[in-house]
Write a structure and sequence with these properties.
- The chain is mainly α and 309 residues long.
- It has 3 domains: 124 residues, Four Helix Bundle (Hemerythrin (Met), subunit A); 123 residues, Four Helix Bundle (Hemerythrin (Met), subunit A) (Up-down Bundle), CATH 1.20.120; 46 residues.
- The chain is 64% helix and 2% strand.
- The chain has 12 helices and 2 strands; from the N terminus they run H-H-H-H-H-H-H-H-H-H-E-E-H-H.
- The protein has a two-stranded antiparallel ribbon.
- Helix 3 runs parallel beside helix 6.
- The longest helix has 28 residues.
Length: 309
């Protein structure tokens, strides 16, 4: 029998692959067909994990052999059909109809929901992908957010989620910066370009000066908003999903010394569903950034070597 921490982490990997299949299934049909491979592979990983957990040597098992050795596994016939679709795609080049893709998705969802609780006494919906995040501080914030949500403290949950996302963007961009210059920066830094910083007073008696100050601040806010939007999309984060997250969460301020702060203004209340959406959004964003990562210093060294040649 496997250690519970190891078991939970491996279930997290399985769920990540399953989620990839869910994402593929909603795309264009040319991409959606590959969701069947992801569903099949995630279920096969689950079966191998289960056999190992039960002390069964499954090295020579075919996909359907598990149901003979572990009789209380459910949905054997549905899995037989899923396996047949996978063989058709991978070995015969036969593509499934859209309806078959949808059936495969439903069957995969049912399989995990029924068998995770039955075999491991863990609800599949409770398996978190937070364990897979490699950014230490981001993971800490998300753990706090999930813990707060579990006890019904939605305000603390949403605040820690906001911190987690800010930390994610900051860490990723910082790791890609050379001599303080970020490859994700668009345009000049507008931090000190407010009317106040420029010494243009909004409260002066001269109405023209007041309007100029207002204009300066509006231009600054507009440019910073555009810079933020470009940066979010350049990180590969779905902007529509980000907009919802941004509406739900308070604004985080990062000070020059590195400290962060956010304030929840007014009497706001969040549903558990909205809090979970925010957690899932940050997890998904973090995993996507981890998926495509690169060492900027190595690239810079290689670039200068080419210049020397």
């Amino acid at each position: 029998m496997l250690n519970k921490d190891i078991l939970y982490k491996r279930l997290s990997h399985i769920k990540q692959l399953f989620n990839i299949g869910i994402g593929q299934s909603s795309q264009h049909e040319n991409i959606a067909v590959f969701s069947i491979l992801a569903f099949h592979d995630s279920i096969e990983m689950f079966l191998k994990l289960l056999a190992e957990h039960k002390g069964i040597n499954a090295s020579k098992f075919s996909f359907l052999d598990y149901w003979g050795k572990i009789p209380d596994l459910t949905l054997k016939e549905s899995m037989r059909n899923l396996n047949a679709r996978r063989v058709n795609i991978k070995h015969k080049g036969l593509l499934p109809a859209k309806s078959e893709i949808e059936i495969s998705k439903v069957n995969a969802i049912d399989f995990f929901n029924q068998n995770t609780i039955k075999q491991f006494d863990i609800e599949f919906t409770d398996v978190s992908l937070i364990e897979l995040i490699g950014y230490k501080k981001v993971k800490e914030y998300l753990d706090k957010s999930q813990t707060a949500l579990n006890i019904g403290n939605t305000a603390d949950s949403i605040e820690n989620c906001a911190y987690a996302f800010e930390e994610l963007l900051h860490t990723y961009e910082k790791n890609k910066s050379v001599w303080g210059d970020s490859p994700f920066s668009v345009g000049a830094d507008m931090t000190f370009m407010s009317s106040f910083s420029m010494g243009v007073s909004r409260d002066g008696n001269d109405n023209g000066i007041g309007k100029l100050a207002e204009f300066i601040d509006k231009v600054k806010d507009s440019i910073e908003g555009l810079q933020r939007a470009v940066k979010i999309t350049s990180f590969g984060i779905d902007y529509k999903e980000y907009v919802k997250f941004n509406i739900l969460t308070p604004t985080v301020t990062r000070f020059i010394g590195g400290n962060v702060d956010c304030q929840i203004r007014g009497e706001r209340k969040w549903t558990n569903e909205n809090c979970q959406y925010c957690i899932d959004f940050v997890v998904k964003s973090a995993l996507n950034l981890q998926e495509f990562d690169f060492d900027i210093e190595t690239l810079e060294v290689d670039r200068f070597k080419q210049i020397e040649l």
